[in-house]
């Protein structure tokens, strides 16, 4: 008689830092999460409070802005990838699955639409409650592209958006959600926690920016937790960054 095998509905990833040898002390499980906070979250949160509005006084070039974003993305993504390699993680559990061009791109556009919808709903609710949703785009409104050729500016925007999208999604979705779940945190808690951290280090964007980013984080996090696919959220993040930067560069005279 044949016995049909069914796949488990929701497999919690194993803790890669756990040990099966009872005679050896278990390593400190939080070290990699502390590294994540130190690399991807705390520096940007600190910048939100250490730099006053005067730090944005005066314009600076799109070359400076995008190169800084690229360097910051490398500072986050490369150490995290090294940590994951040393942990010998199951890359598929962290969302590294083959990219399906048509399907994953279509999913990315769906995530973008849903993210904008969530951000709009949240902003509408806060406005109705009397909150002043200020600070939209202030991070790039002083970036000037007047002295940069349009082709170079667009190239740098594309590269920096891709680097930033990969770094943030690697940290907030791929690494953080997967590790929290492996430590026993419920999926809902992992998604909410990562989304709150994601919004916290975007405080420089003001109230509206933080609310919008929180909505994006919830949408991206929920999809990643369900599908275990990193590339659709990276693609969506990349496209949203491109749209935002091109829009605000145009407003600043680029």
Automatic annotation (TrEMBL):
<protein>
    <submittedName>
        <fullName>CAAX amino terminal protease self-immunity</fullName>
    </submittedName>
</protein>
<dbReference type="GO" id="GO:0006508">
    <property type="term" value="P:proteolysis"/>
</dbReference>
<feature type="region of interest" description="Disordered">
    <location>
        <begin position="1"/>
        <end position="24"/>
    </location>
</feature>
<keyword id="KW-1133">Transmembrane helix</keyword>
<dbReference type="GO" id="GO:0004175">
    <property type="term" value="F:endopeptidase activity"/>
</dbReference>
<dbReference type="GO" id="GO:0080120">
    <property type="term" value="P:CAAX-box protein maturation"/>
</dbReference>
<feature type="transmembrane region" description="Helical">
    <location>
        <begin position="207"/>
        <end position="225"/>
    </location>
</feature>
<dbReference type="Pfam" id="PF02517">
    <property type="entry name" value="Rce1-like"/>
</dbReference>
<keyword id="KW-0378">Hydrolase</keyword>
<feature type="transmembrane region" description="Helical">
    <location>
        <begin position="230"/>
        <end position="249"/>
    </location>
</feature>
<keyword id="KW-0472">Membrane</keyword>
<feature type="transmembrane region" description="Helical">
    <location>
        <begin position="107"/>
        <end position="131"/>
    </location>
</feature>
<keyword id="KW-0812">Transmembrane</keyword>
<keyword id="KW-0645">Protease</keyword>
<feature type="domain" description="CAAX prenyl protease 2/Lysostaphin resistance protein A-like">
    <location>
        <begin position="153"/>
        <end position="243"/>
    </location>
</feature>
<dbReference type="InterPro" id="IPR003675">
    <property type="entry name" value="Rce1/LyrA-like_dom"/>
</dbReference>
């Amino acid at each position: 008689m044949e016995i049909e095998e069914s796949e488990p509905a929701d497999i919690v990833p194993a803790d890669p830092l756990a040990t099966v040898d009872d005679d050896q002390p278990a390593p400190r499980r939080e070290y990699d999460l502390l590294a994540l906070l130190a690399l991807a979250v705390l520096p940007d949160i600190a910048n939100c409070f250490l730099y006053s509005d005067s730090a944005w006084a005066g314009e600076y070039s799109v070359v400076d802005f995008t190169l800084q974003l690229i360097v910051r993305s490398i500072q986050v993504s490369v150490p995290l990838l090294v940590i994951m390699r040393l942990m010998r993680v199951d890359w598929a559990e962290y969302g590294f699955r083959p990219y399906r061009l048509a399907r994953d791109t279509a999913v990315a556009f769906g995530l973008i639409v849903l993210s904008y919808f969530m951000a709009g709903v949240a902003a509408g609710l806060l406005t109705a409650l009397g909150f002043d949703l200020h600070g939209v785009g202030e991070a790039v409104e002083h970036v000037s592209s007047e002295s940069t050729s349009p082709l170079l500016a667009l190239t740098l925007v594309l590269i920096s958006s891709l680097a930033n999208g990969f770094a943030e999604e690697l940290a907030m979705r791929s690494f953080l959600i997967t590790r929290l779940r492996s430590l026993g945190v419920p999926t809902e808690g992992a998604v909410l926690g990562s989304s709150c951290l994601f919004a916290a280090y975007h405080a420089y964007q003001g109230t509206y920016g933080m609310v919008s980013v929180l909505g994006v984080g919830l949408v991206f996090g929920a999809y990643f937790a369900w599908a275990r696919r990193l590339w659709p959220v990276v693609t969506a993040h990349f496209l949203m960054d491109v749209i935002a930067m091109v829009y605000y560069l145009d407003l600043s005279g680029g």
